[in-house]
Amino acid sequence: MNQQLHGRRVALDVGGRRVGLAVSDELGMVASPVRTVDIKREGMHGLIQAISKYNPVEVIIGLPTGLSGFEGPQAAEVRRFAGEVAQHVDVPITYWDERLTTFAADQALMESGYRTKRRKEMVDAVAASLILQSYLDAQR
């Protein structure tokens, strides 16, 4: 972790319609799911407002790669989306491998007893928290 960057980090799990948002504590130890932003409804403005609320020192964006580690068309779309985010935030953006995080998030919510509709609303934010926690753990 860049030791000069003390403060909260925000992670995004970018999907076609929804973006999951998670935030770390000030010390960069624990990631927590925050919410899901419906891009079709709230737009980039809604996402930037949600990010700015936490005054992050860095934005971590989950980058989808295949199990082989290669980037496909979905990764290119995430990079394009990250470019849009970068135009609105004045902090570093870091890509982090998000392989299987949505699956793991859905499994965790299912095992916790969440019904299908509620899981669908929460899965992207939980996936973002898994991305962020993985990033934070790797920086220690």
Give a topology summary.
Layout: E1 9-14, E2 18-24, E3 31-38, H1 39-52, E4 58-63, H2 73-86, E5 93-97, H3 101-111, H4 116-139
Parallel strand pairs: 1-4, 4-5
Antiparallel strand pairs: 1-2, 2-3
Write the CATH homologous superfamily. YqgF/RNase H-like domain
Strand tally is: 5
CATH class: Alpha Beta
Structural class: alpha/beta
Shape: globular
β-strand percent reads: 15-25%
Q: Mind explaining what this structure looks like?
A:
It is a single chain. The chain has helices spanning 39-52, 73-86, 101-111, 116-139; strands spanning 9-14, 18-24, 31-38, 58-63, 93-97. By secondary structure, it is α/β, with parallel strands linked by helices. It has one domain (9-139): 2-Layer Sandwich (Nucleotidyltransferase, domain 5). Helix 2 (73-86) links the parallel strand 4 (58-63) and strand 5. Helix 3 (101-111) packs across helix 4.
Properties at a glance:
Nucleotidyltransferase, domain 5; 5 strands; 23% strand
Q: In brief, what are we looking at here?
A:
This protein has 140 residues and is of the alpha/beta class.
